[in-house]
Amino acid sequence: MKPIFDMPERLGTYGVFAGLMVLIAFLAFGNLSEHLFEGDDFEYVQEVGAAREDLSMLFADERILPGRPVVDLLFLFILKMEWGTPAFFHVFVVLLHFCLHIRSGFWELILS
Amino acid sequence: MSAAFFLVDVSHFRAVHWIACMAYPLSLSFSLLTVVLFLRHIQSGGVGWAVLASCLLALGILSHMASVWVVGFCIYLAFRNKKRFVYAVGAAAPLIVVAILLGIWAYTHSLQTAQSEHAAVLGGQVQIVESVYKLIWFAGRLFTYAFVLGADLTSIHAIDWVVGVGFIGIAMVVIWRGDSPLISNWLVWTLLLLTAFVFNPIQTWLANGPSRYLYLASAGTSLFVVWGLRALVSRFFSGVRCRIIFVSVLSAILIFNIYAVKRAEAIAFYLSGRGYVARSEWETGIDVLARAIQHDARVLPLDAFERYSMGCLGLGKSPLELLSTVSNDARLVSLLQMLSVVVLYLDSDVGENGDRMLQMAYEQALDKENFRRNTSVAFNNLASYFYRESNYTKTAILYGKAVDWRPDYDQAFEGLLLALAEEGKSAAIIDLLRDRPVGGDFLEDLAKIIYNTGKKENALELYQQIVVSDPQNADAHYHVGLIYGALGQRTEELNAYIETVENDANHADAWKRLGNLLYQGHNLSGAVKAYREVVRLRPEDKEALRNLGQLLELSGDEKGALEYNQRAMQVVPNNAKN
Questions:
Q1: Element (H, E) at B548
Q2: Are B304 and B270 in contact (CB under 8 A)?
Q3: What is the pLDDT of residue B209?
Q4: Which residue ranges make up each domain of chain B?
Q5: I need a labelling partner for B449 at 20 to 30 A (CA). Which of A86, B12, B71, B279 fits?
Q6: Quick one: pLDDT at residue B283?
Q7: Tally of CA atoms within 13 A in the half-sphere of B347 that contains its CB
Q8: Is there a contact between B421 and B446 (Cβ–Cβ < 8 Å)?
Q9: Do residues B421 and B449 lie in contact, with contact meaning Cβ atoms separated by under 8 Å?
Q10: Which of B19, B106, B242 sits opposite A89 (nearest CB)?
Q11: B530: part of which helix (H) or strand (E)?
């Protein structure tokens, strides 16, 4: 299938693309930073917070979201740095998603 | 462009809106890196790439178990490369080992909690038909979320069926024909990563359906959408017209998705508010629920409005100011009719008019059981507000109405009893308790409240009920003794204290009062025995030491009397210690 647009492979093109994506992300997720915790967030932050004193808590029997040590460690790091506000967590997830969408775009091409 | 679709894809909104779902973006990150490194491995044959891919797969699985399914995708990619299954499995062998080992670990670890998402699988509850049903549902939801917002997101709709079956059918044909390897690859990815979640339970109370389960799969469908659109437009148009139509449709879909993502934020507000209310953080909960309603009331379930209303009443506020802005919502007719009457009780006693208006609203309500429940909770919450304000007369009236609307509402019934106790209306309490007994501890609380109001006879009647239902309750026997003492009935008082110490030999107060009574009854040896118990339990009770010394002196035990009198003199008063 022929491409519909013949986009030039220039840095400027990628710059415009990135700018557009930032704008779209801002429009879609701009005010997530105003959201608070919800659902399991309360228990999760509490559990990982307890693990700051005793790491074995991460492997305790009764956990809300067990078997995800990578996520636990990331939460632990955020809490350790005293960034554990709902606003920071929300912005962090949006940034993670934003980075992922850019990478997924390139990887889709790699897989071709 | 497909990346832009993935960015604002409404189907996975929960994975971005919900902090606890951070596992999904993390898992997808590691999974995609695994695939890229695995491709390097099969292209170059380098073992280092395979090791790196295995490490990233491990991180992916330890972020979320769904990453295990990426191994299947890697085997598929290797198979496409050389068309040999043995080669494909061999190339993916390191990944397979990692997936089996860590997959089992994550699986068994998640089983240790009752809330595990995967517990049902090993519990032998895997049902093929239900899994296929969910696969179709999830496949449909990848495209229909924006359209079903506002409906019940936790159940499958006709549009989900049609789109789901259509998508799976098209995906099968495209993969089979293999004309476009890029699209085929990502369609396989989508189907595999949807299958990863078909065994998971859907929690209906979350009100958002399978949204977060679609995160990993949606990385594939975003490309499929753009590819499908391009194929469709190129088929019918060419040149400038093709470009204009392509860009227009693409922009429209993007804008529609952004709009849907914004609307879906109301669900996040609702679930957040619900969480705060559940944790008794009423003010915050009500504020967040109000934001949910202001944000987009149409996507919220009825529960959001009910919780907001009940929360407001619990804080002594009227919910009607906000709810009147969404009064055109047909779901709210009964709720608003009921609330318009209940809020009148905030300012005055509406009396029989209120009952009549509520009865009329009840007759018109479509869901009568829900109306009864809501009305009783509304009265109960309003009563709890007036209880905190110490307006016990109004509290009792409102709790009474809550019980009228739902006779089996224990919380309201106990509230009613407490309000009556605070008012000292013990006769009414005893009347109510004849038809509906309550727990011993609660009864004791009521008896204490009534005792403090000064109505000793009625308090005595309640305490006697307690000792009948729980003969070993030493405290209740003790209070019975206290009340008999206040009423001047010495024999009954004495018997009650004897019962007390028989059930609790360490009840120092009962021993002390028993000692006093025995002394008054000229039973010196009995009084000495009782006081010895008091001194055993409270070695620094100056009064008990002195009384015991005097009793021993009267009994002719001068040595003992001297000992206890000296001990009494050595006791330093508490205020002197400080």
A1: helix B542-554
A2: yes
A3: 85
A4: 2-266, 301-423
A5: B279
A6: 94
A7: 5
A8: yes
A9: yes
A10: B19
A11: helix B524-537
Q: Is the pLDDT of residue B115 over 50?
A: no
Summarised one tens digit per residue, pLDDT across range A65-93 is: 777 889 999 999 999 888 889 999 999 99
Asked whether the beta carbons of B32 and B24 are under 8 A apart, the reply is: no
The type of residue at B8 is V
Residue-wise pLDDT for B425-447, tens only, equals: 877 887 888 788 777 678 888 88
Pairwise CB contact (< 8 Å): B19 & A110: no
Which of B:168-197 have CB within 8 Å of A?
180-182, 185-186
Question: What is the pLDDT at residue B203?
Answer: 73
The residue in chain B having the minimum alpha-carbon distance to the alpha carbon of residue A40 is B20
Q: What is the pLDDT of residue B577?
A: 45
Distance from CA of B264 to the nearest CA of A (A): 10
B5 pLDDT more than 50: yes
Q: Which residue in B359, B360, B401 sits closest to B379, CA to CA?
A: B401
> Would you say residue B532 has pLDDT above 70?
yes
How far is A18 from B445, CA to CA, in rounded Å?
Answer: 66
Give the Cα separation of A90 and A95 in Å (integer). 9
**pLDDT score for B114:** 42
A66: chain B residues, CB-CB within 8 Å = 109-110, 112-113, 116
Q: What is the pLDDT of residue B112?
A: 53
DSSP string, B242-301: HHHHHHHHHHHHHHHHHHHHHHHHHHHHHHHHHHHHHTT-HHHHHHHHHHHHHHHGGGS-
The Cα of B92 is separated from the nearest Cα of chain A by a number of Å equal to 17
Confidence of residue B486 (pLDDT cuts 50, 70, 90): confident
Give the closest residue to B213 by CA, choosing from B3, B6, B13: B13
Nearest CA in chain B to A94: B16
Which of the 8 DSSP states describes residue B313?
H
Element (H, E) at B311: helix B302-314
Q: What is the mean pLDDT of chain B?
A: 89
Domain ranges of chain A: 35-110
- Taking only the tens place, the pLDDT of each residue in B166-224 is 999 999 999 999 888 888 999 999 999 999 998 887 777 677 889 999 999 999 998 88
For the cut 60, the answer to whether the pLDDT of residue B117 exceeds it is: no
Task: Give me the DSSP letters along B420-483.
Answer: HHHTT-HHHHHHHHHHS---HHHHHHHHHHHHHHT-HHHHHHHHHHHHHH-TT-HHHHHHHHHH
Which residue is it, tokens 């994550």? B106
Residue A108: which of B106, B186, B246 has the nearest Cβ? Answer: B186
Residue from A7, A26, A46, A65 to probe the interface with B (highest B Cβ count within 10 Å): A65
CB contact under 8 A, A67 and B26: no
Q: B34 near B64, Cβ under 8 Å?
A: no
For residue B155, the model assigns a pLDDT of 87
Contact (CB, 8 A) for B402 and B380:
yes
Closest CA to B163 of B171, B152, B155: B171
Cα first-last separation, chain B = 77
pLDDT of residue B578: 43
Task: Give the sign of the dihedral formed by CA B354, CA B355, CA B357, CA B362.
Answer: positive
Do residues B379 and B389 lie in contact, with contact meaning Cβ atoms separated by under 8 Å? no
- Phi, psi angle pair for A38, to nearest 5°: -155, 160
How far apart CA B193 and CA B215 sit, in angstroms, is 9
pLDDT at position B573 over 70: no
